[in-house]
Amino acid sequence: MPRLVTAYSNPLIRQARDLREKRHRRESGRFLAEGLRILTEARESGRIPRVLFFTSATAAHPLVIRLIGAVESAGGEAIETTPDILSKLSGKDNPGAVIGVFDEFGPTLDELDRNAASIWLVAERLRDPGNLGTILRTGDAVGAGGLILIGECVDPFSVEAVRASMGALFTVPVVRCEWDAFVGWLRRGPGQLVGLSLDTDEDYRTARYDEPTFLLTGNEAQGLPEDYAALCDLLVKIPMLGRADSLNAAVATAVMAYEVLAQRRA
Q: Could you read off the pLDDT of 239-262 as tens digits, one per residue?
């Protein structure tokens, strides 16, 4: 049975609140996810929170009832609390119906099966959690095998990135590694590395993409480093007809992913 916690000083509440900070996520190996849709996506993908927070206003919702049952069956704890505490955990005045504390997860490079999908997404030094979340949603939409984060990228388990992913964090595998490790792994098997670059005349629509295709997006402000671009099998450019010199990183990734998908379907 769920228990009622209404004191902000309760250790469970304070520990969950601390997970909004990267240091505490690293120390505990846990993170926060918020919202009924996101937690339902997690449950349906087999990810059950260790702790579930909800209020009396949502306790009777069928999806909340299923989440409570799943948490308790897995040995976790379901906590009914106040809207004010839920808001403090969320950091928003209008928090989602539920908040869950999850264990961090994710495969290693060597655990990936590159032949499991024809499209893979790779992002290098991605800084914006909104971009990361959007790229994860794109990966889910095009059936990508996963997202590989290179170097000092934004934390995919930050509250903002999890929220922006709209549940795709639980459906798209995320690997974090360094460039040399990624290139070494990639070259041990099939895989075409395609970089998005301004320093090429190759139009993304006329290029031909081999399976599996690894789409590499560079840092939002600086793009791909020259030495990274030099190791790509193909560099392509999205033409810009206005005054802007490039698209947002997440938008460019989506445009590219759907072009590769269109060629696969054709």
A: 877 776 667 899 999 999 999 999
Which amino acid does the sequence have at 219? N
Q: Residue 231 is part of a domain; what is its CATH number?
A: 3.40.1280.10
User: How many domains does the chain divide into?
Assistant: 2
- b/e for 53-78, b at 16 or more Cβ within 10 A? bbbeebeeeeebeebbebbeeeebbb
Give the tokens for residue 243. 């005054």
Give the residue-averaged pLDDT of 215-239: 92
Q: What element of type H or E holds 159?
A: helix 159-165
Q: d(Cα 85, Cα 212) in Å, to the nearest integer?
A: 46
Strands (E), 42-108: 51-54, 77-80, 98-103
- DSSP for 110-136 reads GG--GGG-SEEEEEES---HHHHHHHH
Residue 99 has pLDDT above 90, yes or no: yes
Q: What is the CATH number of the domain that holds 15?
A: 3.30.1330.30
